[in-house]
Amino acid sequence: MSRIKNLEKYLIDTNGYEELKKELLKLYTVTAVELPVNLSQLSIHKQFAKENIADFGKAIMELVKRMFPSINESDDIDKLMQERFVVGLLNQRLREQTRAKMLKMRNIKKEENFRIED
């Protein structure tokens, strides 16, 4: 409410409720933002035959950064990058091994395994 100036005018004016409602909607309505990268672009991105794994990983990271430019660190974004990386790997055996390793790492309970004993 501190963003609304001259609140008293809305209380006094006969049309005050409608005007206040318009002002609040103008202040707090979230407008849709078009993403520079389409989500389907990320979901279909696969490793090219001549592309090494490091370059493919960088390409996935760049796509995600372009999709979410204001998010620097997030567990959800990290999981999204990891999942898209694994799914997009060209070699099926490597893809399966990487997925198994990733799932194993997610199942580690850090609180229990990395607790300092007194």
Strand-helix topology:
Layout: H1 7-12, H2 16-28, H3 39-44, H4 53-67, H5 75-88, H6 92-107, H7 110-113
Main attributes of the structure:
118 residues, mainly alpha, 63% helix
Structure description:
This protein has 118 residues and is mainly alpha-helical. The chain has 2 domains: 1-31, no CATH class; 39-113. The protein has helices at 7-12, 16-28, 39-44, 53-67, 75-88, 92-107, 110-113. Helix 4 packs across helix 5 (75-88) and helix 5 (75-88) runs antiparallel to helix 6. The model has no long low-confidence stretch (mean pLDDT 81).
Q: Encode the helix/strand succession as letters.
A: HHHHHHH
Helical content (DSSP H or I, runs of 4+):
55-70%
**Helix- and strand-based class?**
mainly alpha
Mean pLDDT: 81
Distance between the termini: 50 Å
* Number of E-type strands: 0
The number of domains: 2
Q: What is the global morphology?
A: elongated
Main β sheet profile: none
Instruction: Please give the radius of gyration in angstroms.
Output: 24 Å
In DSSP terms (H or I, runs of 4 or more residues), the helix count works out at 7
Q: What share of the residues does DSSP label as strand, in percent? A: under 5%
Q: Would you identify the regions where 5 or more consecutive residues have pLDDT less than 50?
A: none
Summed up:
The protein is mainly α and 118 residues long.
